[in-house]
Known about the structure:
The protein is of the alpha/beta class. It contains 15 helices and 19 strands. The chain has helices at 46-53, 62-67, 71-77, 80-83, 96-101, 159-169, 187-217, 241-252, 270-280, 295-303, 313-319, 351-355, 358-366, 371-396, 400-405; strands at 3-9, 16-22, 25-29, 31-34, 58-60, 90-92, 113-114, 132-133, 137-139, 144-147, 154-157, 173-175, 230-235, 258-261, 265-266, 287-289, 308-311, 322-325, 328-331.
Amino acid sequence: MIKFDIEARLPNGRGRAGTIQTPHGTIETPAFIPVGTKATIKAMTTEEVRNQVGADAILANTYHLYLQPGTEILRKAGGLGTFMNWSGPTFTDSGGFQAFSLAGGMLEHRTKIRDSKKEESKPLNPKTSGDDLGNLAKFDDDGVSFKSIIDGSSHRFTPERSVEIQHDIGADIIFAFDECISPQESYGRQKEAVERTTRWAERCITAHTTAHTALSDHGTDTSQSPRVPSLFGIVQGGRYEDLRKQSAREIGAMDFEGFGIGGSFDKDDIGTAVGWVADTLPENKPRHLLGIGQPMDLILGIENGMDTFDCVAPTRMARNGSAYDGFSTINLLNARFKEDLGPVDAKCACYTCKNYTRAYVAHLFRAKEMLGATLLSIHNLYFLVHLVKEARVAIIEGKFEEFKSRL
């Protein structure tokens, strides 16, 4: 249901610029995809995401939408895009990372990226590591059982159930159910996750094909139906070269329309790790780097063959009063911004930076006015979306190294 074309490549690297054609429009790659976790980009309307940010697509969260509002209402509404008044392409993740992070991983402040300079890189508590994350999520070979973050009720995701839920949500691109574990887990545990993810990927393809066949049997023209999503497989392997390449070989050999690069990374070698994967995966299918969104990480990902990206960081930062100022960040709650009548970022051309001052936005946060989060969300998303758009133009024009040197 998608068509991927490569328009230009880096002459001495893995990076490329192209397009992904979906039933709801074209994504020009590389592209940063804003995250609308619960069918909304927090603090923003879809019109602002489209017109002020210039995003091509959005990504929503399977775990959260399954819990609230539930797939029945999404199916009756005509799918995710119709429900949230978004006419462009949509993605949904598989729910695997949320089962890890929200149902147990966050108890240890664990994230996808290991940074040896920060506290979240401390050794795992044995009581919450492995297959039992604090008794809130339990992984086994069939799937994961977890507690709802809303009411504590019990639920279970399997590869088949994840695919079924994502079909009901109705996104253009969906992801196979995977096991995402902490970057602090051992090599042996990472290997188990790779092998389990491969087995689950095979089951996801079977479930996806079965659902596709069922639509055909009911007389639906699946070549034109926007309700038939494209399934992407997910590569795991943590920070280990042999495991990343093993996972990429196994997932890359399956009948997926594209690939997500998931799991955990070391902050110092994200580019190296995704490069291992890019060298192993099929060249003619799109690659999405899941949950990575810091500016330099995006540039490293683009340079090493990634096509699309998503991350909650820009809007989360905005809601806490932080904004990108070039590749640095500033916190507008700091006293020095109370009387600063300059723009949030003097080099930015977004709606916020053209019309509002640091002092005004700082006032909004101190006064607890919701507009502050909206204005910084517009700026932070615009900065990342257009940073990646500029990288795309630089690749097409053969000026990527010059572009990178200016950053």
